[in-house]
Each structure stands twice: as structure tokens, then as C-alpha cells.
Amino acid sequence: MVKQKKIISADIFTTPLRVLYDAMVSVMDFVMHPIQNRVGVRGMAYIFVLPNLLIFGIFILFPMILNFYYAFTGGPRLFPQDRPFVGMDNLNRLFTCQDFLVPNSCREDLFWRAATNTITFVILQVALLVLVSLMTALILNRNIRARGFFRSVFFYPVLLSPVVVALIWKWILQQDGVLNALIVSLGGEKLPFLINADWARFWVIIISVWAQMGFYTLILLAGLQSIPGELYEAASMDGAGSVQAFRAITIPLLMPTMLVVLVLSLIRAVQAFDQVFAFTGGGPGTATTYMVQYIYTTGFANQTREFGLAAAASLVMASVLLLLTVGQLRLGRTSNLA
Amino acid sequence: MKKALFFVVVMGLLISIMPALAQDAVELRITWYSDGNEGEVLRGLLDEFEAANPDIKVVVDEVDYANGIQQLLPVQVEAGEGPDMARVTNFDAFKGKYLDLRPLVADAAYWDASFPAAALAALYNADDTDQIYGFPNQFTVTGPFINRTLFEQAGIEVPSDMNDAVTWEEWTAVAQQVAEATETPYAIAMDRSGHRFAGPAFSEGATFFNEDGTITMDTPGFRLMAEIFMGWHADSITPADVWIGAGGTYNAAAPYFINGQLVMYMSGSWQIAAFARDIGDAFDWEAVPNPTGPGGSTGMPGGTYMVAFGDTEHPAEVARVMDYLASVDALKAFTEKTLFLPAHLGLGELTYETDNAAAAAALNVFVSEVPKLSDQAYELQFGGQAFAINNPVRDRLTQVLTGELTLDEAMAQLQQDVDDALAAQ
Predict the structure, then answer these.
(1) Which residue, A88, B146, B226, B263, is the most exposed by fewest CB within 10 angstroms?
(2) Which residue range(s) make up the domain with A152?
(3) Whole-model pTM?
(4) Nearest residue of chain A to residue B78 (CA atoms)
(5) C-alpha to C-alpha distance for B26 and B272, rounded to whole angstroms
């Protein structure tokens, strides 16, 4: 005797959902209809974007305006009404310098050290990050064994909190850490990974690349997979080698994706803070103090709490980011036209 | 059916408002940090208080010192989001934000008689006269500890056993000999703190405060101590992680000492309870007098204050808690259990709750250091300008250690930092 499979009617799932949906539509209709009558169909667009605009206004626009105001005020008090207007004093203090290339000659030498550190970090980190992400994406795009596993492995650090990443690596690299213990057990001498400025800068870049490359690899992989395979077949039939195909097909067609990766990683690098702060605290000395940490320290960590100076530094940084963004938009437009 | 529905709705409402009905007690919050067992001791005292005062519940939020107390608490209080009370060391940071307890406490005369007037006045704004904003619940003195077992293993005499006036140079040389003889990783270390550095600098002849009210950081005494300190790092006899590897925050070298990796450790009396607990009988440790120099043999005074904040919604209840914590019984119990030096003038004879002979001896050493504290040291701690000096000293010295600045450049930047910080107020 053959057992008959019990067939579950789809209705037992869809009916409650249908009822719920109808109820929600009724409620929405009840709320929206009078509004539409009042503002008209064209006005409804503004009603729908209003919640998002409110969030943007409260959490982004308002703080930006407040920051602008703070940059021209002084004193230690927090609330705007308690802060005296000081005009350009904070910006003047930041830009009082005998030689902008020599931080020690500047009145706010720590600002210029942070600026110099940030520029160096951005150039090296972004270049390495894009290069490593591209190489990884190219490898993972090939038909290698356990490709899915490797994709997961490279993406895994992206899922970790930046502070967790920093603490894990600190545990490995500190003077009495795991790596030095290994070196000593192999007969070597401890290396000053976190107490030598050059070593610390090196590891900050390596760790941020390790932590972020999975994300950019994924973007580049998607870009690579969107390149039609027929192009490579045609090139192969025309006698093109793999290097030629890479230069003539992969690079040009991947360029829009590369641009996205470049811009995202650039902006993220300029904003570097949490991971580095938890990893080195900005040290040794000020070797890994970047702009955001300078702003945080000046405004909140120092006992003097110079909110105005910190806000002025934020303005300078925002201006740089604005320039980068405009540059990216123009580059993107040129690339699209091409 | 309708009756049943009505019953369910009424019961639901009752259940939802029951917690609110039960919450008669006013909840107060204290932000607190611990070097040793202070948090546990405070909790025990508050449990007794709550048993006797069921209308008040006190929640203690334990935070770490560097971030929680030094960095976050001032911002929270400034923003009106602070706790009702807190244990603080950087009391300058909260001036203008304290709650005046004088009209609220049961007996203001008791407070005036029990704590040094200068200690209460350290919390004042410029135009304050007799406010009570809190009380010092602990007095501290900075000074060095040594690992005596290492000296014995090395067969080297402890210099302070033979001589009352040992210099920093002598201590450095002897500690280095002991470290080499016993293959101990580090000879000498100091907490990463401008406050900790100030005592030795004053002993070497540094003076910060001029008679005309100005501050001068660059003095031969400061430079002398800075050079000794730079020598520790240049010779790799101090753990570089403590100052160079710490970034921009306070960092204690205590773990190296507790783990027997350090011969001599410059810290302070607040470490005694932690050492008694964590070192146990692993080795013999002791406090030794502050080294001597042209400026004397001074450590730095210090201490923690229990303060109340003006933004509290329950000033009367806060005053009751403060009255209790400032009482002779509570402070005596707190002092005896935490092995702190008392800042209360009338606790009488103390029986410290420790069977650790080293802890008892260390307490005696630090008590004998109090008369040697210099005027400059008191001025730095209680004069209201420490906020402008201590952290810049720490950070500029670190830049010298990493090679970012020469000592000359650091001294110039340090003076600028201090001037800017004072001007910004």
C-alpha cells in the first residue's frame, strides 16, 4: 500500500498574511487619504520622504550646522548659548605655522602631525587595499578548488567589530605578545611592533587592509563576474595572451567598479579612528594619531576640552572630504562619458 | 465572554503598573572606579545604608579610570547626563557642576570639622566661600615600591636601608644592577602620568609655579628628571609599553611589578591593597621613601573625592547618602578595609584589615612621606591648574621618548600647551 503524501494547502499561510496586508492597507488608506486630499498627489512625494529627511536633519544636518557654529566659539562650556563668539581664532590657531611641512614649527603641532599621518596612511593603505583586494578577487574569480570557502574566509574579518580586530592584533603584537613569544622561542629577539613608530605605522596599515579587504574583494568580484566571458574567448581566438586580455579587457571594464572601491576606501581611510585608537591609542607618541583622533582628543579626551578647536579641525577635515567627493564625482562623470 | 475579557484587560493593566507601584525607593547612581577592593567595600557600606534607608536605592556604576572617569564623566556631567555622585580625582574638571550640600546635610559643622578646609576648598569656584561639594575619601602619596626578594637574590643592599637620602641616579644604578644579577626583565618603571612624574621632578629642583602667579615649565630640575627618565628608556631598563606603547592615556606599570618582572616601581599608596591581594607571598615587596634631590624628597599628594552633582533630581536623598559615606563609622570602615590613608581628621586609631605585614609597613612608609611633601606639590594638586599641566607633561615626554621631539622642542611645546589650556578656560 502506497502512502499518500499529505498536501498542505498554501491557503493556511497566505490567508493570515492576506488579512494582515488588507488591514495594513486599510489603515494606510485611512491615514493617507485625508493627507492626499489636503496636499495633492504631487505633495505626497514629500510626505513619503519626510521621515527620512527628519532623520537626516536631526542626526546629520543639525550636527553639521552646530559644528560650524562651534568652530567660531571658544571656552570650555558645552552648550552653544554658554559659548562666546571668537571669530576666526580657532582656525587661525590651526593655521599658525612657520613651515607647514614641519609640524614642530606650528602652534598646533599635533594637528599637523595628525594631518601628515593621515595623508601618509591614506596613500599607503588605499593603494595596498585596492591592490590586495584586486589580486584576491582575480584569484577567487578563477575556477579554483574550495572557492566558496575562500570567499567566506576573506570576508570573515569584515564581520568583526573594529575594536575586536584591534584587541586581537594588540594581543598578538604587543611587546610580550604572541608573535614576540614565537620569535623568542625560535631563538630571535623581541621586535618593537607597537613601540617603534615605523613598525606601528606598518601594522596599522596591514591590519586595516586585513580587516577591510574582504568587503572590497566582494565588490571587485561582482565587477569581474559582470564582464562577459565571450570577450575573453574572442581575445583568445585573436591570439591575445592572459596579460594582454587583462590589460585590454579586465582593467578597462573593471574601471567603474575600481572607482567605487577607490572612493569608498579613500573616504573610509580619511575617517580612520576606532580600530586604530583601540589598537595603538595613536602611539607610539603621535605616530598613528590621525585626524579623527586629534579631533576626539582635543574636544573630549583632553582635560581642557577645547570644543571650538576640535570643531574647527572638523571643518578643515570636512572640506578635504568634500574636495575628494567632488573629485570622485567629476572622475566618475568623465569615466561614464568615456 | 465580555466579563472574561474585561477581567483579562484589568489584570493586564494591574500587572503592567505593579513595578511602578513597587518602586517607591528613589534610585541614585554613583560612578565609581577601583584600584583595588574599593568597589566591593563601597557596595557593602551601601547595602547597610539601604537596609536602614529603604526609601533610597544606590546603584554603583563601576567604570575604568582612564576612560570612564578621566574622559567620559566630565562630558556626561557637562551635558547634564551625569550621575548623582561620583568618585573623582580630576576635580577641577567639574567645577561649577557640583551640588552644594551645606544646606542639605544634617550637620554642616561636622563636615567643616572633619575635613581639612583646603581639601574642601579645592572643589571651589573662584567666588565660592563655604560651599560643601563633597569630601576627600582617600588621601594618597606617590612613592616607589621595590621587590626586596630580588635585592636579596642579587646580594645587593637596598640603598634606603643604609642611607636616608638616596638620589634617583643611585636608585636607577642599583635597580639596574639587581635586574642584571637576577635576570629580571626590567629595573625601574613609572606609571604613565604627569602627576607621577611631578614628584620626582620637584625633588630634582623643578618648580612650576612662580610667585607672580605664572607657570614656567622649563626649569633645570624638570630637565634633569626628564633626562634620567629618558635614560631609563635609552638603556631599555624600563618596559617601553608603559609610556611609549600606551597612546594618549594613563597607563600603570603595576602588572610588571606584580608579576615579579620589575625591581623598582614608582607609583603610590593606592597600590597597597592591590599588591597585598595580588602579590600575596610570591615575593617580599615594600614601599621605600621618595628619592632625594636638590628640591627635597617629595612625592605628590593626591586622593579621590566623593562629590555630588548639581543636576541630580534628588538633592535631599543625595545629601543623606553623602552624610552617611562621610560619617566616621563609614569612612573608618572604608579606610580600614581598603588600606587607604585617611583624609578625615577624626577617625582615631585605625586597625587596617590586613594580615599582610608588607601592606602595614607600606602604609607606615607613606604616612611618613606626608610631612615631606613640598609646597609646589600641594600647589599642583590643589591649586586648580593641574588640568593644564599633567597630561601635556605626559604626552610631550612621550614624544621625546619616541624621538618625535627633542627635549628643547618638548619644553617649548609644553609651555605653549599649558598657556593655551589656561587661556582656553
Answers:
(1) A88
(2) 95-305
(3) 0.82
(4) A78
(5) 36
